[in-house]
Amino acid sequence: MSGPNSATAPPRGPAVGLVLGGLLVLAGVGWLLDSLDVVDLSLAVLLAGALIVVGLALLVVPGAGGNTGLIVGGALLTLGLVGASAFDVDLKGGIGDRSFRPVSLRALQDEYHLAVGELTVDLSQLPPPRGVVRVVATVGVGQLVIRVPVDVEVMAGGRVGLGQLRLLDEWRDGFGLEAETVRRFGPRRVPGGVLHLEASVGVGELTVEAG
Amino acid sequence: MTGRDPTAVVAGLLFVVLGVLLLLEAFDVLDLRPSVLIPALFIGLGVAVLAGAARRTKT
Fold it and tell me: How far is B57 from chain A (nearest CA, A)?
């Protein structure tokens, strides 16, 4: 890669290759350990780890400072992470589209998380609970849809950092959205049986609707 | 640090410090408020830009 300025340009070294390789190894090891259930890693942890690697490369690797790409990459990672923190984006769970449709209380999970994408939790076929059943669902960036049965008492709390919030009869858009609602339904309702939902989306759309 | 680009040094330090803070937040060790985090980020970026400008002035 010798050019007209190669005689005067400072030696840059294989900084980008080292950093990219390091990041790929870091991401691969993290992903593998997460898949094997050795550790529970979130996207936020991986991105923060990547930011540390980029910072260390700028400090330690000779010639890395001359590479604007590393500084720009680090700045983009910083903006993403600070934005996620500012809008309370929960980056737990994976990436993509996920759908869950438990038909019994035994199959119901306590928590459902997705970092980026569309998460649907269809509780419409769930039998009326006895006592309070609490379910937490979060999406970092994307869409979260929760369908509740039409014949149970529902206490729902929703939070959206930036986007749209549709909580049964309530609808809002903007940023820093929060809402709570209680709805009592139909004839199969068991006295004292309550489905207690806590749902949040960092950036995107949250919908809780009767299924 | 002789011969090192001061912008890269400041940016590197900023990325490492922010990365550690955000990692601690991800593990629920720290609760970072945007009202603290965003001004701190502006200060760090400002120092990096100033360091680069100072170097250019010297040369």
Answer: 17
Measured between its terminal Cα atoms, the distance across chain B in Å is: 17
Average pLDDT over chain A, rounded to an integer: 81
Structure confidence at residue A102 (pLDDT): 93
pLDDT digits (tens, 9 = 90+) for A4-45: 444 444 445 566 777 778 788 877 887 777 777 777 677 778
0.85 surpassed by complex ipTM:
no
Question: Whose CA is closest to B25, among A184, A48, A61?
Answer: A48
The answer to whether B41 touches A78, Cβ cutoff 8 Å, is yes
Q: What residues in A contact B23, CB-CB < 8 Å?
A: 45, 48-49, 52
Pairing of strands A170-183, A153-167: antiparallel
Distance between CA atoms of A46 and A48, rounded to whole angstroms? 6
Model pLDDT, residue A9: 47
Query: In the A/B pair of chains, how many CB contacts fall below 8 A?
Result: 89
What contacts A58, CB < 8 A, 6 or more positions away? A64, A65, A70, A71, A74, B8, B9, B11, B12, B15
State which residue of chain A sits closest to B31, comparing Cα positions.
A85
Rounded to two decimals, the pTM is 0.63
For residue A136, list its beta bridge partners.
Answer: A111, A198
B10 part of contact set with chain A, CB < 8 Å: no
Q: Which of A185, A188, A179 is nearest to A208 (CA)?
A: A179
